[in-house]
Amino acid sequence: MTASFAPPVIDRSDALGECLQRQGYAVVGAAQVAELAGVSLAELGSWQAQWDGLPPDLYLRDGGRYRRRRHSSFVVNGDAVTQVAHRPHWQPVEYNALHGGMQRHFEPMLGAMVGHPAWQKLLVWLGQVSSGLKGAQPWYAEAHQFRIDTTDGIGRPTPEGAHRDGVDLVAVFMVDRQGVKGGETRVFEAAGPNGQRFTLSEPWSVLLLDDSRVIHESTPIQPLTQGGHRDTLVVTLRSGGFQDEGL
After folding, report:
1. How far apart are CA 158 and CA 170, in angstroms?
2. Which residues span the domain enclosing 90?
3. Is pTM beyond 0.70 here?
4. What CATH number is attached to the domain comprising 183?
5. Which of 11, 50, 74, 113 has a 20 to 30 Å separation from 233 between CA atoms?
6. Residues β-bridged to residue 186
7. 119 in any annotated domain
8. Closest CA relative to residue 142, chosen from 123, 158, 121, 159
9. How is residue 155 annotated by DSSP?
10. Beta-strand (E) ranges in 93-213?
11. What span, in angstroms and rounded, lies between the C-alpha atoms of 243 and 90?
12. How many domains does the chain have?
């Protein structure tokens, strides 16, 4: 049996900012997410079925069939959230050696989720977290719904390996985890020797990362039962604009 380490969830909601400033990452429990974002756990849980219908990711360069996703982009400016015209996802090779340097066109997230008041509140809260780290300003947010399954016997949440995303804040929400082992989260200092490993399992708990200070990855998953999968929502926030080819 592989040991599974519990995530270091902050003990108080008001400790989030201090924790991020001190170590560059923080794990927030689901009840704390609901409290801080001003939403209910029932509202968050009502979105879970949308992960069942995610289209396949056709850009996997390792030839795998284990990843499904949707992607949409937003601007968060204070209490205002604006969804921008649908655009491809692009990363430089510097941050994604496997899939960087190419325009990846994914289907957009569905209106039943991104048009929900709780979605607006969730993004506003993440904008507040980013502003607490970097100063108040508009934030260019990209949201990704991921399902990693065990169709090929193994699924890779981060096929690019340990990485940074080239943004200011990364939020990795655990949505669901069924019939799998593995999927351990690993966070390392970008400029130091320290790191931590743990397994996210609570639906709607979140790992928040100061992308300038830490590197992260998730280990592969393997099936325990037929149809095993790991569902996450990843939201990145960046100052100054979206990552785009040529910028």
Report:
1. 14
2. 21-238
3. yes
4. 2.60.120.620
5. 11
6. 197, 217
7. yes
8. 123
9. B
10. 139-149, 169-178, 180-182, 185-189, 195-198, 206-210
11. 6
12. 1
* 8 Å CB contact between 59 and 104: yes
pLDDT value, residue 97: 55
Answer yes or no: are the C-beta atoms of 218 and 158 closer than 8 Å: yes
Phi, psi torsion values for 121, nearest 5 degrees? -65, -40
- Specify the pLDDT at position 192: 87
Q: How many CB atoms lie within 10 A of CB 199?
A: 19
**Is 26 contained in some domain?**
yes
Spatial separation of the C-alpha atoms in residues 66 and 58, rounded to whole Å: 10
Total Cβ atoms within 10 A of residue 247: 9
Asked, for residue 6, whether it belongs to a domain, the answer is: no
Helix (H) or strand (E) holding 98: none
With respect to residue 1, please indicate whether it lies within any of the assigned structural domains: no
The first and second tokens of residue 203, run together, are: 């639906």
Instruction: Specify the residue for token string 């709780």.
Output: 118
How far is 37 from 228, CA to CA, in rounded Å? 30
User: Is the backbone of residue 215 left (phi > 0), alpha (psi -120 to 50) or beta?
Assistant: beta
Successive 10-residue mean pLDDT values, the chain, 247 residues:
81 93 96 97 96 93 90 98 93 62 87 97 98 97 97 90 91 98 95 93 98 95 96 97 74
Question: What's the Cα-to-Cα distance from 165 to each of 92, 110, 123, 235, rounded to whole Å?
Answer: 9, 24, 18, 11
